[in-house]
Design goal:
five-stranded parallel sheet; alpha/beta; 25% strand
Length: 187
């Protein structure tokens, strides 16, 4: 009986959710018979995004506790939709792009920003600089990634870190304020 209800839930979700979200974002590992977590995220987001208006213009399910400045300036793999379901994440990309590599995990309360305020006029922003996170990175809770940072594949950012410069070689653990190399990870 439970299998039947689950199948009905999936079929109803496949019919209704594309009315609210771009269909290409309703696929992947979170939208299968074995893993229906994506459907739960999407139904919750129908209420918070489309009815209440949090992140209304974002075409994929996003937690109401996450902020995304510009849907056009962010790239990610569909199987990494989980990165937009946490609380407190801030993707400030209205002036610069954020690229999140495949298999990267972003913990709660992480800020990724592409443009700082102009120190001479705080009502303005400096020119944006892209932020690129390589594949299979892990950004620890309460971390901040600043404009122009490029992290290579398999970079682990310790919780509470402020990443002010790039670590393009990857395969490393960085932490601190400002973040510094703690150790290399053997491939």
């Amino acid at each position: 009986m439970r299998k039947i209800f689950k199948q009905i839930y999936i079929e109803i979700s496949k019919l209704i959710l594309p009315l609210f979200f771009d269909k290409k974002y309703l696929k992947g590992k979170y939208f299968t018979k074995k893993n229906t977590l994506g459907y739960r995220w999407a139904w919750r987001a129908v209420i918070t995004q489309k009815i209440l208006g949090y992140n209304r213009n974002i075409p994929w399910p996003v937690s109401f506790r996450t902020e995304i400045s510009n849907k056009n300036n962010i790239e990610f793999e569909i199987d990494d939709l989980n990165n937009f379901q946490h609380f407190g994440c801030y993707y400030q990309n209205f002036n610069g792009k954020i690229k999140i590599g495949k298999g990267t995990y972003i913990a709660p309360n992480v800020g990724i920003i592409t443009a700082n305020h102009d120190l001479k006029d705080l009502s303005k922003h400096q020119e944006g600089r892209d932020v690129i996170l390589g594949e299979k990175c892990w950004i620890g809770m309460n971390s901040m990634i600043l404009p122009g940072v490029n992290l290579g594949d398999r970079t682990v950012v310790g919780a509470g870190s402020v990443v002010t410069k790039s670590f393009e070689d990857g395969n490393c653990v960085i932490a601190g304020n400002p973040a510094r190399l703690l150790r290399k990870i053997e491939e």
